[in-house]
Structures are given as structure tokens and as C-alpha cells.
């Protein structure tokens, strides 16, 4: 779920408890849409993350320490200029909206104290981070919004900051006399849940559903069907809920799916509607948000950063598929070439019955048992001997073309297999270094221009995944072709076990045997990893070959990740992500 007004209220309370009166030490911008404030408050240091990411915008304390760009972006430099050393005077959530304003006292260029505002608007793809001066004039924003992008308001340096339109919603914290039901908006046919989140600011659909559940009301109940008793029950639940929020009585928690153990929701209040779901409570809402978004945000950013190489790989794959179709079509054409040799031989055998100027001649095909008659086209401008030589030349050309096409088709299929392995590796990437590895490989293979190979190569330090099997064996999984080569050709010992999906692009998986016998349980776990980190991760009964590393060879001139092997066994397995999550992941 997105951060709603209740969660924002919880975050603001947490920040005020820890940072009110504290100072901003350092400011970094590790991503184009993300700011990290290194702060000090009440004797402790904290990292505060603000991100306007279009899919996962949020604000919370973070324990993660991201790598920063060598050259700080312009917005980061501006924040350092205006906010470094600044004192946090207040943190405000206006009108229970998804907006947080930091009031920061800092020295201006003249050495005088003045108050600036750092504002984060958490509104999906319209999210933004904005810095204003003491007169509410925009100094800059992480995303510029011109009239071309929005007819509602501009967010540009020099403009007066105006909050986003409130959509005429009521602030639930300002409702008096338990009168919530009377503020519900909608016409006949408007459902209760929809009316709740469209009438009050800061309420998300899932919270509106929770309110209905606690009031023992159906979410699909129409407004015109509400009785006075229903309205009283609804108002009582909302009064209790927002009374807790006014008193800063929060219950940060994550709700997990009972089958997959995946986090599906988080909240700052007790959620009763998720019957049978596992709930985990936390002391800090920042812990909740960081845990909930950690994997989602990373995968989203990896996908965003790999879009360009994904497109390059996909375009080259499409080119290869078209080339393959043309080669197969041409191969069919030249496969039926024996008639050319036959025509040449029949002309030679009947050369004295043919004269120059004939368009065709009919003869018996004595090469077949039934000796059928056959009509052979002739070029009237050529002699009989020249006509025969013409057919022999066409036959030899078709024969050479056939052999060349077979080789070309083999090369095309190898390129398709290679590109599909790159595509699979892109989808298996877990951090930016993996993407850089694939990008460098594309440059090495000529799919991208190589500008500064030494610098690019020095930046590549990605590592394979490392798991610990239930029997105590180390298992390594390559996430791209370069890691696969490193694992198989340099890291693995001759007696280590090597796994790979049969004829399917995917990861090389290594079990470090330490010259011990590997239990079947560990073999199954390694095969599951090989199947899951392959193109067939969503398939069933995936064939996985495994053998000792000494039986795996890399042919001369083979592309990265490409190997041949023998003396192998095959195991069929259906990839199971839940079993992978049960394995211990080692750093």
C-alpha cells in the first residue's frame, strides 16, 4: 500500500521525537530522485531518507548506506549550500495530507539566520522534494514541473510554493462531536468504502476497508442504504481511530501472506480485517517501511536502470529471430537442389539430340526405376554443353549455399542462446554492479560502444549469490555470464558439483563439496536454485543437468557463460521460491 496520512502522521511523530532541535550534518543524493540527510539529534546520529520515486515514494529513517555518485547532482549541491549545519525547528504534516514540511533554521549567504522549508510530497508519480526560502519561494525541486506537465500548478525555481489541490477532502483530525458520518460524500450508488477515502484526507482504500470491518459494515454497502445505527457505528470507529492518532498511539506492523510469507500490507494501526494472516509488530514505523520496501524498491530501481540494456538485448534478439527465419526459408529453397544436378546430367547424356535455340527438351529420367519422362527448360542462347554447365554451376552454388546456411544458422542459434542468457541475467540482477557487468559484457561483444574500457572494468565488482544448504554445504549462483565463467572456470574445484538447466539459459550453480559426499537434499536445493535462476523459473518439471566441474569445458572462442559438459545426470524440478527463501543467504 502507499503511505497514507496515518502512516505519514506516525513518521512525523517519530522524526519529531528523535530530531526536533537536531542538526543536519551531511546531505547526499545517491539516486536521481532520492535524498539522504545525515542528522544528529539528542546525542545520536540518524540517516533520514526522502525519495520521490514514482512507484515507491516515501520518507523514513534508514540503516542502509548507499553508494553516492562521485559528482553530487545540482539539487544535492543546492541543499548542501542552504541546509548544511541547519537546525530542525519543526516537522509538519499539513491537513493530514501526504506532505511533510521540515522547517530548518540555517545561515544564509549574508551570515544571517533564516528559516527554509524542505518539503516532500508523497503522491505516487507526482511525488516531489522541494526546497523553499523563508518567503515560501521555490529555490529548487528534485523534479521540475512546468505548465506542459501540469496545468494545475508549476513547481519551478522562483515560483511561490503552492500545496497540491486538496480535492475538497475533510481533515479527519478536525471533525468535532463524532460527526464523521455526516461528512461522507457521494451520490446514490456510491459504495461506503469509496466514500470514506474520497471524503477524508489521508485515508487509503485499505484503511477505509478496515474502518468498515471494525464497524461491522459491508464495504460494498451503498450510502443510501446506511441506517442511523450504521452511521453511529461508523462514526464511533472513526472517532476512536483518530483519537489514537491525535494521541500518537500507533501500532506499526506488517501483514504477511499466510502461504508465501510475502509482506502484502503495512500499517500504523491495528489491522483486524486480515484474518489468518501473520502480523509482525515493530517499535518503529521506519523499520516497517524499510523492511516492506527494501526488496521492492531495489528491484524497481534495477529494472529502471536495466531498461536500456534490456531494450538493446531485445532488439538484437528480434534481429536474430528474423535472420533465423530468413535462413530457414533459404535453406528450404536450396535443399531441393538435386534436380539441378539431374538436369545437367540428363542434358549431358542427350547432348547430341539437343541443338542450340531450343527452349526445352523431353527425355526419360533413367536414374529412376520407373523411368518417367521429364521436361528440362533450356536457355536458347546457350549451347547444349553450356546449358548443362549452367545447371551444374547452379547445383554447386546451391550446395555451397546449403553448407554456408547450416553454419550461419548454427551461429544465429548460438547468438540467440547467448542473448537469451543475457536477458535472463538482466532479470536475475539484484544490484547495480550486476547491471554494470552485463553492460560491460555487451560492450566487449560489440553490442554497445566501448568508450573507456579500463574505467568500466574497474567498476565491476559484482558477486554471485551465496547460499548455505540445509546440510551445511556452500552453494554459489552466478547472476550473469561473467559470474558464471568465474564460478565455473576459476572458483570451482574439479570435484565440486556444477548445475545448469538443460538447453535453457540460466545461472551456473556450484556446490562446494570439500571432497565430501553431497546428500540428495542439497542436490535438490542446488537444482531448485538452477531452475529458479533461469528462463524457466515459472515452468514446471524443469530439466537440470549436474556433473562434477572437471567434466565442464569451455570451447575456444565461446562467448561468456557458454560451456560444454558430459558425464552428467539430469533431475527434473519445479522451481519453488519459498524453498529458496528457507536457505540461509550469506554475504
- In percent terms, what proportion of residues is strand? 15-25%
Q: Which CATH class of the largest domain applies here? A: Mainly Beta
CATH H level, superfamily name of the largest domain: ibrinogen binding protein from staphylococcus aureus domain
Helicity, as a percent range: 25-40%
Q: Can you tell me the overall shape?
A: elongated
Q: Number of DSSP helices?
A: 14
The strand line-up of the biggest sheet is 22-19-17-18-16-15-23
Label the CATH architecture of the largest domain. Answer: Roll
End-to-end distance: 30 Å
User: How much is the average pLDDT?
Assistant: 91
Largest beta-sheet details: 7 strands, antiparallel
Point out poorly predicted stretches. Answer: none
How would you describe this protein?
The protein contains 14 helices and 23 strands. With 587 residues, the protein is α+β, with helices and mostly antiparallel strands. The protein has four domains: 5-141, ibrinogen binding protein from staphylococcus aureus fold, CATH 2.30.310.10; 172-302, Helicase, Ruva Protein, domain 3; 310-426; 463-585, no CATH class. The chain has a seven-stranded antiparallel sheet with strand order 22-19-17-18-16-15-23, with helices on both faces. β17 (497-501) and β18 (509-511) form a beta hairpin. α3 packs across α4, α7 (307-335) runs antiparallel to α9 and α8 runs antiparallel to α9. The longest helix is centred in the last third of the chain and has 45 residues, at 384-428. The chain is elongated and about 115 Å long. The protein starts with a helix and ends with a strand.
